[in-house]
Task: inverse folding
């Protein structure tokens, strides 16, 4: 029996992921993130995923003009949640591997073994260039840097002491205790879409996020098989729900009416400054005039029953192991998802011999206490 996990892409930046002046307007606060976490846990979601962003992209919507640091936020959320997994983004350029290893192990202990990290090698390097931390020629060796960084972190988690003489890091009889609760170490997530990025995930990661690109599922799993590994592949999707299909489509059209073209242009320009082979593929979806945000993947639009049916179809046809969701209004839409969509999705998946992750986890917990 297959398992499908559900995640929430946490809105850690201004206005979430929507570049539209007709979308809900808000700044990220811990009070908001805590409320979303509680609703997601109650609704049956498996994980909360937080990106790392260090600058905004303007426009009339003020897209991401404020952002919350994801590692600190995840540590705080660990104290107000009970079972949901917490994934936070780390860029290796910003944290020495020994410091990162200690931080991650600490949050793993705080959360009772529910923490994981998303490794990002750059995305929009402009964010890091403003800090002066990007080495010369970094674009040509970013994954080599991340590979050595993560190898060092994993060794610190699994060895009593580490001496390492590498291209980028030198450690002498270095210790990092205590070790993480999760063995051999907390989950690793990555989201690169180039072959180089997919191979990095195949070597190191437990989850590979591929947006709304089902063709990447078999691709990255084949790379993982070459490494003698398996990993879970997750999609990203925006939920646009309404009381009827027409109401949902009307809701989407209202967002399009306020599309912030300036913010889109600024984000595209930032991507293209990296001058990577994958830049065109990473920006092509942003050029679609019916795209209304970043990280939203393919929008799923319709009534509650339609949403449940379409999500079940995606899970069945594309064979994703997880689907990460974004929403227009994270509070009201999450409430509706838990009450109106989750039960229908669960029933539809069962017909295809697919169980939702929390049902599997609940069964495992019951077995432990039997």
Result:
């Amino acid at each position: 029996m297959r398992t499908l996990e559900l995640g929430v892409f946490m809105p850690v930046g201004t206005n979430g992921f929507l570049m539209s002046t007709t979308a809900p307007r808000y700044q990220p606060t811990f009070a908001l993130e805590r409320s979303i976490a509680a609703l997601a846990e109650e609704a049956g979601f498996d994980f909360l995923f937080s990106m790392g962003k260090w600058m905004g992209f303007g426009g009339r919507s003020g897209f991401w003009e404020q952002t919350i640091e994801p590692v600190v936020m995840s540590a705080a959320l660990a104290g107000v949640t009970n079972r949901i997994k917490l994934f936070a983004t780390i860029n290796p350029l910003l944290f020495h591997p020994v410091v990162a290893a200690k931080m991650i192990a600490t949050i793993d202990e705080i959360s009772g073994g529910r923490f994981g990290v998303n490794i990002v090698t750059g995305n929009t390097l402009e964010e890091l260039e403003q800090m002066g931390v990007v080495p010369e020629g970094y674009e040509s060796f970013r994954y080599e840097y991340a590979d050595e960084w993560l190898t060092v972190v994993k060794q610190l988690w699994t060895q009593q002491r580490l001496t390492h003489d590498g291209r980028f890091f030198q450690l002498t009889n270095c210790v990092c205790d205590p070790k993480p609760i999760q063995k051999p170490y907390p989950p690793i997530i990555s989201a690169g879409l180039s072959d180089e990025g997919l191979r990095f995930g195949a070597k190191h990661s437990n989850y590979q996020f591929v947006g709304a690109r089902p063709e990447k599922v078999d691709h990255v799993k084949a790379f993982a098989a070459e490494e003698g590994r398996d990993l879970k592949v997750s999609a990203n999707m925006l939920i646009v729900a309404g009381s009827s299909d027409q109401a949902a489509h009307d809701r989407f059209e209202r967002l399009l009416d306020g599309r912030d073209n300036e913010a889109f242009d600024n984000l595209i320009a930032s991507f293209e400054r990296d001058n990577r082979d994958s830049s065109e593929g990473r920006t092509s979806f942003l050029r679609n005039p019916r795209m209304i945000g970043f990280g939203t993947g393919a929008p799923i639009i319709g009534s509650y029953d339609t949403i449940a049916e379409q999500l079940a179809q995606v899970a069945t046809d594309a064979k994703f192991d997880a689907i990460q969701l974004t929403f227009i209004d994270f509070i009201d839409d999450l409430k509706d998802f838990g009450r109106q969509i989750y039960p229908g999705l669960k029933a539809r998946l069962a017909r295809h011999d697919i169980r939702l992750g929390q049902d599997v986890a609940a069964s495992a917990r019951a077995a432990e206490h039997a």
Q: What stands out?
A: The chain has a mean pLDDT of 93. DSSP finds 13 helices and twelve strands in the chain. Residues 163 and 172 are 4 Å apart (CA to CA).
